[in-house]
Each structure stands twice: as C-alpha cells, then as structure tokens.
Amino acid sequence: MRIRWLLPPLIVLLGFFGYPLALIVWQSLSTDAGFGLSAWAEVLGSAEFRTAAWRTIVIALGATAGCVLLGTFLALVIAFVPFPGARALSKVVDTVLAFPSFLIALAFTFLYGSAGLLGTGGFLYSQWGVLLAEITFYTPFVMRPALAAFSQVPAAQLEVAASLGAKPGRVLWQVILPEARPSLVSGACLTMLLAMNEFGIVLFIGAKDVQTLPMLIYTKGIVTFEFPQACVIAVVNVVFSIALYQWGGRRAAVEAA
After folding, report:
1. What's this model's pTM, rounded to 2 decimal places?
2. What mean pLDDT value characterizes the chain?
3. Phi, psi of 95, deg, nearest 5
4. Which residues pair with 35 in a beta bridge?
5. What pLDDT does 65 receive?
6. How confident is the model at residue 49 (pLDDT cuts 50, 70, 90)?
7. What's the CA gap between 66 and 193, in Å, rounded?
8. DSSP state letter for 45
9. Which of 150, 195, 205, 224 is the most exposed place for a label (fewest CB within 10 A)?
10. 120 or 29, higher pLDDT
11. Domains (ranges, CATH) in the chain?
C-alpha cells in the first residue's frame, strides 16, 4: 500500500531529475571510439578546471562569510534597535529575493561599470566585483531566517541578563546569537550552495577573467562545443553541491539539537 503512494512522486523525481542526470553522466563517458574516461582525464588534469574549481570555492566561501556578517548585522538592527522605518527596511531587503540575479549584475554595471556613474570598471570586472554582487544578492537569504530567530528570543531572558549586569556585547554573544545559531547555519549553507552554482551574476557582469565551474560548463558546452567535457564538469559540480547540502543538513541538525 505504501509503495502505491510512493510510486507517483518517485516517477516524477526520476523523470525530471534522475533521467537528465543519467544522460549527463552518460555523455561524460562518451568518446569517439565509444565509451571511456578520456574526457574525465582531460578535464581533471587541466589547469583550467583546477583554477575554476578553486575560484568557485573561494567566491562561495567569501560570499557566504559576507552574507552572514551583513545579514546578521541587519537582522540585529531591525530586531533590537528601534528606529522609524525598520519594517520598511526589512521589506526593501526582502524584495531582493524576488529579483533574478542578473538584475543585480545589471545594476552594478550601471553603477560601477566603465560607463557607469562611479566608473570603477576594473573593480567590477574582477573577482571582487563578482563577490560584492553575490553578497548583495544573497544577504536576504541569511537575514530573513536570522530575523525570524531573533524574534523568538524571549524579552524576559534579555531583561534578566541585563539586570544581572551583562553588557550588550555579552548579551549578544551569550544569549542572542546562541539562540539564532541554527538559523544562521542554515542560511549560511543555503547561501554557499547558491553561490557555488551562481551563473547569471558572473555572466552579466562580464568578468572574463573570473572563470567559475558554471561558467566553464557554459563555455565548454555552448561556446566551444566540447559537450563531453562540459558534462564532466557538470557532474563534478553536482557532486560538490550534494556534498555541501549533506554537510549543511548535518550541521543544521547538530546546531538545532
């Protein structure tokens, strides 16, 4: 009886995710002579792939760190510092969640591009420009769960800590942040996963020297028509994403326990 209920979602999962992934793996093993690991050896042994993989990891870690710092700060200000317009600020930041990532890239181009208002084109088209754009776009993914966690901190707990002589910094480190740690870990893992697979920001900014794994997949598959090599990189990227997802899920479960 249970198998009957599990069968429809299993068919959908295999049809929409399993079958395309199986085709990508199949193509990564395709050679002119049939099947083999020549594409894998070529890709994994190339300096281009190693550079793209390293840059992808560095940008993902940097974007995650920046989003955690900025998102936590904004959530703390909105939750615990009463000022006019706090709710409006929260709504403005939330609207970024509804934007496609390439709009952030276009906005940065109008501001920091060679013909933009500030005219800092060299900065925009570097790794730092991509990093700043990703922090801007993904900060709400950390701020929103942090804000929800801060709203659950009992006011009486804060009052007791203050009445015992705890300074604001000590209250922050020993009362507020421990309560929000599971939400911060979840938001950080989600941000890292999204940043690792980010494509639109790098493409629309036009940072030619910033070659990440998604951009390398695009180059191999669409520009140079090296489809088996593109599939190899895609499989590696999927493995990285699944490993990060599993690790993040375990960390969030440990923090919540």
Report:
1. 0.82
2. 81
3. -65, -25
4. 30
5. 94
6. very high
7. 14
8. T
9. 224
10. 29
11. 38-256 (1.10.3720.10)
pLDDT at 119: 61
Beta strands 34-35; 30-31: pairing state: antiparallel
Q: Which of 16, 204, 195 is nearest to 104 (CA)?
A: 204
Length of the chain: 257
Terminal C-alpha separation, the chain: 33
Q: Which residue's entry shows tokens 């088209």?
A: 125
Of 128, 152, 245, which is closest to residue 191 (Cα–Cα)? 245
Token readout for 170 is 């000590």
Q: Where are the alpha helices (DSSP H) in the chain?
A: 2-13, 19-28, 38-44, 47-80, 86-95, 101-112, 121-124, 127-151, 155-163, 168-171, 177-196, 200-205, 213-218, 227-256
Residue 62 has a pLDDT of: 93
What is the predicted pLDDT for the residue at 35?
76
